[in-house]
Design a protein that fits this description.
This protein is mainly alpha-helical. The protein has six helices and two strands. It has helices spanning about 1-15, 20-30, 55-95, 105-120, 135-145, 145-165; strands spanning about 35-45, 45-55. Strands 1-2 form a two-stranded antiparallel ribbon. Helix 1 runs antiparallel to helix 2 (about 20-30) and helix 5 (about 135-145) packs across helix 6. The termini are far apart. Mean pLDDT is about 75; it is low at about 20-35.
């Protein structure tokens, strides 16, 4: 008992003498490990206030529980990150396509055209651009309605996709 009292006094002395928690914890736990207790200094406002002594087995259970909680939260976080990446990829794909024709939209066309132009110049390769127009398309909408006009645009877009190679970019302005 006399030895315990002396060690406890030393632990308190360590807590007041060294304001760095890690250093105090190391000195105190190393010195007091034979007591089957772990002493953790609590520093409030830069001054050591008191020590908490925990039984070693309880400390280990708390540590194991915290490690398990960290693993669970890490797994949850990784799942959420995967969901966000999937959602972002879907949003990116939607933002690049015309909803009616499912062809690349104007913005994506301009981005990709700049890349392709730069690539063709860098490698001294030819680059082709084909533009098409449906003559008198306004009359299709006027005479047959916008639903029929949408059908014509979809069929035209499908024909463009069927006639294009995989590396070609068909777009709708």
């Amino acid at each position: 008992m006399r030895n315990l009292s002396w060690r406890f006094k030393y632990a308190i002395y360590c807590a007041f003498l060294f304001p760095v928690i890690a250093h105090v914890n190391f000195i105190c736990t190393g010195f007091l490990k034979g007591l089957n207790r772990i002493f953790i200094p609590i520093i409030l406002g830069g001054t050591a206030g008191f020590l908490i002594g925990l039984m070693k087995d309880r400390w280990m259970r708390i540590n194991t529980n915290l490690e398990q909680l960290v693993k669970e939260k890490t797994n949850d976080l990784n799942e959420k990150i995967q969901e966000l990446e999937t959602a972002n990829s879907t949003i990116l794909e939607i933002s690049r396509k015309d909803p009616l024709t499912n062809l690349a939209n104007r913005r994506f066309f301009y981005e990709r055209a700049e890349e392709l132009y730069s690539l063709s110049r860098r490698h001294s390769k030819d680059l082709s651009l084909i533009m098409s127009d449906i003559d008198n398309f306004k009359s299709v909408n006027d005479n047959y309605g916008h639903d029929m006009g949408d059908t014509v645009l979809k069929k035209f877009a499908d024909t463009m996709k069927e006639c294009s190679r995989s590396e070609d970019l068909a777009a709708h302005k």
